[in-house]
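Whether sequence alone determines local backbone shape is best considered at the level of individual chains. For completeness, the protein is quoted in full, as a sequence line and a line of structure tokens:
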Amino acid sequence: MATNKDKKHYISRSESRAIAKENSKAIRHFEKQKKRRAKPDDYTAQMKDDNNIIEFEDLHTYFFSDAGTVKAVNGVTFSIPAGSTVGVVGESGCGKSVTSLSLMQLVQAPSGQIVSGSIRFKASLFKRDARGKKIPVYEYETETDENGNQAVKLNENGEPVIKLNKKGKKIIKKNELGGNLYEMEDRVVDIAKMPTDAMRSIRGREIAMIFQEPMTSLNPVFTIGNQLDEVGLLHIEGISKKQVKARSIEMLKLVGIADAEGVYKKFPHELSGGMRQRVMIAIALLCNPKLIIADEPTTALDVTIQAQILELLRDIKHKINGSIMLITHDLGVVAEMADYVVVMYAGRVIEMGTAEDIFDHPMHPYTIGLQKSKPTVDGEVDKLYCIPGFVPNPINMPDYCYFRDRCEMCKEKCAGEYPGYVQVSPTHKVACYLYEDTKEDGDGK
């Protein structure tokens, strides 16, 4: 007869209570951190490379479950250069989407929490006065000088005279989106340390996300116009309803929707999958974000629509001069779109480099396996390659290389501690013991 000790996955009642107690304690701590009142200096950081717009460093995002702690993201480190597209690839459950949700502070709480690490982002924040209020930029009265040129009118004290409206209120200048213009400052912030209130000024305005399934992401009881307008009214202060409607229709046209005025009045269920995906992109782009997170934007679409959506993303990236974090399973999409590629497995980055590095010179056995499992037009094979085994249980991760039990090239050393990064070229890193002898300039982290 089997005893409790023989049952590998058995959790006793006392163990379950202990796990629940520890989870409750950890969750209270992290929730308190998110709700705290913090000054900007408390979450100000510094970029390691000024050419980057985002830098993930040793990020850990866990889910506290009744069976134990799920280490969904377990020490992720990579960066996104400004103006580039970074493709994040890997099997389902490897931590791609959780990494992007951590960046947006949208990990499902209270069970999901960013436990440690840094997410440094180059943000444009509103300047604040002594009372913590935004500092508006006003319109000034002008007058013609002796030479016939227009100049700012000055009062008796030599100060610029601010324009007033009919009600005697100061007139604030308008920004490019039609909202009020405020004084801004460039500041590097650590999103992992930001309280929720402060994050709201960045999420949607500076960083936007195209979610994986548009049918479940769009609200079925509101029209497309309502959902677009909500983003504009929330993030563009001082914009009128007429202006925000014009902006919404402009964005629908930008993403290639011919009857933009008609689609503006429709509900999500009245649109096809490709149209809904275009609406999701329009919502993400409405505030001209610096970074777009595209979480498998072409998964539910047919091949023709996929090509249109990818071409659209590429064009829009150049128009807004932004960066894209592209999450996908499709290596073909990554090869076409990405400048840099990050390969993830079981919550860790196992290889990273330029698209040429990863596709022309894949090094990690997992990356090689992914490429071999993709069908090719000129391939003369009867059966596609399949990586043997399964992804390890994220609750009880082993201390050694997570891919060891599935690897056909493992060594004795693979049973030891998790391998550090090996820098095989200036742009190419791999976490594998097979390439220790080719180490060029790695930090061994």
